[in-house]
Specification:
The complex is a heterodimer of chains A (436) and B (288). With 436 residues, chain A is an all-alpha fold. Chain A has a single domain, classed as Formate dehydrogenase/DMSO reductase fold (Up-down Bundle). Chain A has 18 helices and no strands. The longest helix of chain A has 34 residues. Chain A is globular and about 70 Å long. Among the domains of chain B are: 95 residues, Immunoglobulins (Immunoglobulin-like), CATH 2.60.40; 96 residues, Immunoglobulin-like, CATH 2.60.40. Chain B is built from three helices and 16 strands. Helices cover 20% and strands 42% of the residues of chain B. With 288 residues, chain B is α+β, with helices and mostly antiparallel strands. The longest helix of chain B is centred in the C-terminal third of the chain and has 36 residues. Classes of the chains: A mainly alpha (436), B alpha+beta (288). At the A-B interface, helix 8, helix 10, helix 14 and helix 15 of A face helix 1, helix 2, strand 3 and helix 3 of B.
Chain lengths: 436, 288
């Protein structure tokens, strides 16, 4: 690689590594405040118990589980997208693949915490490891998530090694000595020798293939927690693939949003172009169509079957939850399809707006999968107080949810100070291929 | 992304969330609960007279117990006492043995249970008319046969007289309700005799409670006698050792599938980690 070109790439792609801007501190400070509010809410919950949440005997899972599924979905989508882009050597992948990899690990670091917030007796959590019953889908999920955490971490690290080596060798980059030391250790002495390149490339291919398979299996396992349960609306054979499609839908949406954010704040217009937005927009279009098909298929069969409890549930979705339902299953699906289908509308702004709507719609979709079902139990509960029968999230749950989103943002910001958000080595490789 | 776009998207999501967060709260029940009261009388094996009420709400998906409701019990117009329904919707009142009860002209006791209603639940009431009756029960073994004899009498001006031509039964308790062993009519002597079967499961020692009972009788209510016997077959409570979803051992296919998948995945992880050491080793070699 031409050294001048590398210097230019380093200058463009590492704006926050060498120095920290005032706006970085301001945004980080705001996110930190939200996080502190979430911690305060969590302390209230631990001190006073789950009575401070909207969860009661009927709806024992609420916003926390919605967040868990949502973040895990983002993680698996990140894995699927980055793994596929890498494995199939997609030519335009270079500026976006690192973001997809980061989505995988950061979402995975946040999602499982929401399970802990749901558990009333936290001291019993180790029992699931001490006395596992492998017939239980919860145990499958614990095993799957642990396996996925390790896999995603290895995948991310392997993809970072070349960039760590570049940062280690960057003499003109003004960075703290501890960062230099960190890059030296983490780059494992990588010098780009043919043997090292071959080993690293093969390892990345292996991990990319593994991470795709694991993402599909792990998110299916999560779906089966619902699917194998005899609850109205959950006991469905298509929940595995339906959840996987939903995950990819939300993950691609988040990837496009992050591309727009980092493109703007780090001035990456030269690297992340309209072509990347349109390409990922087309992926969003296809996934939205699949997601719509699965959604229609799931509800049609339940509605047509007219099983008493399914009928009550669907009536509930079209009355009490109709705003949610219309947003999640009509607006959230049709908006990206319309915007991408009409070439004139394919602008960066429009695609980003469509992604934001799709992302929020997917969260709402999870909400209407969980809450209405739990409000429609086969066996009615004894307590008939309104708040026992119907779920309404409290400020505690919203604060902890906001804290989760804030941590997600903070982790992206911290990582952007330690490593480039756009992979330098991938861009170099792409440039070399273009030259040849 | 332009500021205007961000503004519109934020506004749209905010409106949606605000509207959505109120959705569940709008699903308030418009009217009060119209409760169903089941009012029954039980004279138990210790001859205690108990008035029992079960309060439920009949919903689209079944009966929901109504806890925390205050029920007042009356004999004619005399307040006997009050009780609050528990989590199962049950409330009961034990009539003191020394309490003189008002009897109507036909000799029966009129009882009432009244719930006055509250902010969530409509008022309701129930009434019963009970004639007092006693049951004697003998459980004996003769020449290898197990015999249960029930004798029912009622107190009249002429003293204790046999109750005839009424339905009575022998029962054993099971997990959810009473299992009828035999049901028949009282003869002219007020007795009902059966041979008790020898194949009814008891506990691990063969203990079995035998119950003679007027069950939900139109005139006597529920009246019963209980005797503890060793007439049950001994129940084997060994834990299942077979492999299934519900036993302690998982099905073999499940164990094998999980093991193969985990070995495959973690094997690849190990291979990649070994490769990382190879990269490092190569780096060290080149540095020298």
């Amino acid at each position: 690689m031409n050294l001048t070109k590398r210097e230019a790439l380093l200058s463009d792609l590492t704006p926050e590594i060498g120095k920290t801007s005032k706006s970085w501190y301001i945004v980080f400070g705001i996110l930190l405040l939200v996080f502190v509010l979430g911690i305060y809410a969590l302390v209230q919950q631990i001190d006073k118990g789950h009575i401070v949440t909207g969860m009661r005997d009927n709806v024992v899972w609420g916003v926390y589980i919605v967040n868990f599924i949502f973040f895990m979905g983002l993680s698996y989508a990140g894995a699927l997208v980055s793994g596929t882009l890498h494995l199939f050597k997609t030519p335009w992948r270079a500026p976006v693949i690192r973001l997809a990899e980061l989505i995988t690990v950061i979402s995975l670091a946040i999602g499982p915490f929401f399970i802990f917030f749901c558990v009333g007796r936290l001291e019993r959590i180790p029992y699931i490891l001490a006395f596992p019953r492998i017939q239980s889908p919860i145990v499958w999920d614990v095993i799957a998530i642990l396996t996925d955490v390790f896999g995603a971490a290895i995948f991310l690290y392997v993809s970072f090694i070349e960039d760590f080596a570049i940062l280690r060798d960057a003499e003109n980059l003004q960075i703290a000595p501890w960062k230099k030391k960190m890059y030296r250790i983490l780059s494992l002495g990588y010098q780009g020798t043919p043997k090292q390149k071959r080993i690293l490339s093969f390892s990345r291919n292996v991990m990319a293939a593994m991470i795709i398979a694991i993402a599909i299996i792990v998110y299916s396992v999560l779906a089966w927690i619902f699917g194998v349960t005899l609850q109205p609306g959950w006991h469905s054979t298509i929940f595995g693939p339906y959840f996987v499609i939903a995950a990819v839908f939300s993950g691609v949406g988040l990837l496009i949003i992050l591309m727009a954010i980092f493109r703007k704040i780090y001035n990456l217009e030269k690297y992340i172009t309209l072509k990347h937005f349109v390409n990922l927009g087309i992926v969003l279009f296809v996934i939205a169509a699949f997601f719509g098909y699965f959604t229609f298929s799931d509800y049609l069969t339940k509605w047509y079957g007219s099983v008493k409890m399914d009928k009550i549930l669907i009536d509930k979705l079209f009355t009490e939850f109709r705003t949610y339902f219309i947003f999640a299953n009509y607006i959230g699906i049709l908006t990206p399809i319309i915007i991408i289908a009409i070439p004139r509308l394919r602008t960066i702004n429009n695609i980003t707006i469509a992604s934001i709507i799709a992302l929020v719609a997917l969260w709402v979709n999870r909400y209407i999968i969980i809450v209405p079902t739990l409000e429609t139990p086969f066996i009615p509960i004894q307590d008939t107080r309104h708040e026992w029968l119907f779920y309404s999230p409290t400020w505690v749950e919203w604060s902890i949810t906001a804290a989760g989103v804030a941590v997600c943002g903070m982790l992206f910001m911290i990582i952007s100070k330690l490593a480039p958000i756009v992979s330098i080595s991938e861009l170099e490789e792409a440039a070399e291929k273009n030259n040849t | 992304m332009s500021k205007a776009s961000i503004k519109y998207v934020s506004l749209f999501i905010l409106v949606l969330l605000c509207q959505g967060s109120n959705l569940s709260a709008t699903a308030v029940q418009d009217s009060k609960i119209n409760p169903y009261m089941l009012f029954t009388y039980l004279k138990d094996t210790d001859s205690r007279q108990i008035l029992q009420v079960k309060m439920t709400n009949i919903t689209q998906v079944g009966e929901v117990p109504l806890p925390g409701l205050n029920i007042r019990f009356y004999n004619n117009e005399t307040l006997l006492g009050e009780a609050t329904t528990d989590t199962e919707g049950n409330a009961s009142y034990i009539i003191g043995s020394s309490l003189p009860l008002f009897a109507s002209e036909d000799g029966s006791w009129p009882f009432n249970a009244i719930f006055d209603g509250d902010s969530l639940t409509e008022e309701t009431s129930g009434e019963l008319s009970i004639n007092d009756v006693d049951i004697e029960m003998k459980v004996i073994e003769e020449e290898g046969e197990r015999i249960v004899t029930l004798k029912a009498t009622t107190l009249t001006g002429d003293g204790h007289v046999p109750v005839t031509g009424e339905e009575i039964g022998v029962y054993v308790p099971r997990m959810f309700s009473l299992l009828p062993v035999s049901i028949g009519m009282l003869d002219e002597n007020g007795t009902f005799t059966i041979k008790f079967p020898d194949d009814i499961p008891g506990d691990s020692l063969g203990n079995l409670t035998v119950i003679g009972r007027f069950n939900d009788h139109y005139s006597f209510g529920n009246v019963e006698r209980r005797e503890e016997t060793r007439w049950g077959t001994k129940a084997e409570m060994a834990a299942p050792v077979y492999r299934s979803l519900w036993s302690t051992l998982a099905p073999k296919w499940m164990v094998i599938s999980l093991a193969v998948m985990l070995l495959g995945v973690w094997g690849h992880y190990t291979y990649v980690i070994i490769n990382l050491f190879r990269i490092r080793k190569e780096g060290l070699k080149n540095r020298k």
